[in-house]
Amino acid sequence: MTHNGEETAAARRPQIQEVTELRLPPDGPRPQAHRGDPSTPPGEHAPGGPHGGTTPPGLPQDVGTPPGADAPDLPHDRSQAILEAAKQIGALLKRAGHPFALAGSVAVYAHGGSRYLQHDADFCVLPGDADAVAATLREAGLPVRTPPEDWLLKTTCQGQNVDIIFALAHEPVTRDMLERAHVLPVDSVLMPVLCPTDLIRSLISAFSEHYCDFGAVLPVARAVREKVDWDVIRDTCGDQPMPAAFLFLLERLDVIAPREQRT
């Protein structure tokens, strides 16, 4: 046994020596830049940032992130970019005299909801005004794209996506809907914002067997629940299976009172 072990050890020594003599090529991977590292120019992220290979928000910083490495972009950085895009588009539409209303997560923020914005800015316009709105955006130097969906146009502002919507939850945007909008400040710019009832109705009416993300809409409902006419919500979309299930969930979580208990 001892003799065989000695032969095995001797056979392994050259292999160990070869491994210890390995060297990275001159153009091999560079170490990740750290805060204050002069190799990373100001305003640039270290390799893997801001979203690739970094610790997801909410996890301890020492999980998967080397000490001192650049942290991922904070949520409010992206949110501020979306707000700036919404302000510029809103100002353009106001100056051109187009009837419109802010929608989506930025509208929730304007009504006092979370400032954590992750996706894009949304604006509602009348279907008959879509071409005129597109012309206004192009005159301002913004690109306008027509996606396969036939209920919106898309543009880009401040590096952020902006949706120009003329149908919400498969129903055309109406003049009555825009007239119900509240004029609210979005940071420093006043603009019409969908009223909370229309906002919630547009979100839960979109639920279906193929898209039913209650978790995304639940915090919105919590944020604006006191401003929503829930009887209108029940009357207009409460007989549909997925919206009805969401309303039931809101009742069980004590976000809203059951209909029979409302005065």
**What Rg, in angstroms, do the CA atoms define?**
27 Å
As for the number of domains, it is 2
Q: Summarize the main sheet.
A: 5 strands, mixed
N- to C-terminal distance: 89 Å
- Shape descriptor reads globular
Element-by-element helix/strand order: HHEHEHEEEEEHEEHHHH
- Number of helical segments? 9
Protein model, in words:
The protein has 263 residues and is of the alpha+beta class. It folds into two domains: 73-194, Beta Polymerase, domain 2 (2-Layer Sandwich); 196-263, no CATH class. Helices cover 39% and strands 14% of the residues. Strands 1-2-5-4-3 form a five-stranded mixed beta sheet. Mean pLDDT is 78; it is low at 1-76.
Quickly describe the structure.
39% of the residues lie in helices and 14% in strands. The chain is built from nine helices and nine strands. The strands form three sheets. The protein has a five-stranded mixed beta sheet with strand order 1-2-5-4-3.
What are the salient characteristics of this protein?
five-stranded mixed beta sheet; alpha+beta; 39% helix; two-stranded antiparallel sheet; 263 residues; disordered N terminus; 2 domains; single chain; Beta Polymerase, domain 2; 14% strand
Topology of this structure?
Layout: H1 2-20, H2 75-96, E1 100-103, H3 104-110, E2 121-125, H4 130-139, E3 144-145, E4 152-157, E5 160-165, E6 167-168, E7 171-172, H5 175-179, E8 182-186, E9 189-193, H6 196-204, H7 214-224, H8 230-237, H9 241-252
Helix pairs in contact: 6-7, 6-8
